Amino acid sequence: MSIEEESGYRGKAEEFLQAFKKGAEFTQDLLRENERLRYRVLELENSLNSMTAGGGTDSQSQALMSRIKVLEQEKQDILDRIRQIEDENQDFANRYVEIEAENNNLANLYIASYQLHSTLDFKEVLQIIMEIVINLIGAEEFALMLLDEKTGDLQAVACEGLDRDEIPPVKLGSGLIGQTLQSGESYFCDDVEGYKRDILSPMVCVPLKIKDHVIGVLAIYKLLLQKDQFAQVDYELFTLLAGHAATAIFGARLYSDSERRLSTIQGFLDLLTK
Description:
By secondary structure, the protein is an alpha+beta fold. It has helices spanning 3-53, 58-116, 122-137, 175-183, 232-273, and strands at residues 139-147, 153-160, 170-171, 187-188, 204-210, 213-223.
């Protein structure tokens, strides 16, 4: 996430907060106006009672009654407006909380992505990805599977809450995981609470891809207890995580391969020089 995007999200949060404050101030003004009208209605009702007791004319009584009805209608209009403003304020408050949570999650992902790209060690990259999935996504059981370029199969390279031996190699297009690898489209189970673990059909299956090239998938089988459904921000996190993770894995793999080749070449050179 760039600095401009982060500033944009914080700007939205501030905008909602200011709108919420203005709504609250307007509500207070309406409440004060409602109190003034209520007091005025009482005054007119007392005047009408006094006039009736003192033998006032019918025309005066009717004028007061008409005035009372007008004020009562104005009062009702204000009460309706107050209820409407309160509903709007509640919507603003809820949205503000959502944006704050989204800002926090995106900030955490920004820090995590920085950690991802701060190392070229393949094992460290895998460990950072696992921690991100646990802490940001809230997954308890999941597997990170990468494409073996030689066999064309997906192989589990890291797991949490599962044994790697439980997860068999998956061929392109085979089952839900293989279809995700083939299509490059994420899959999310509609009924999170009712999901029963199936190794070949995970609750969530997200492709790890660089542009249109898929290098693996993230398969999630169980969420932490406090998380019973996905929020909109989760889908955004999955998308961002998949892209950053794929890039970090690809870079670490290239570095590891180059290191091995360099070591091999150096070994040959050493043999030749000896």
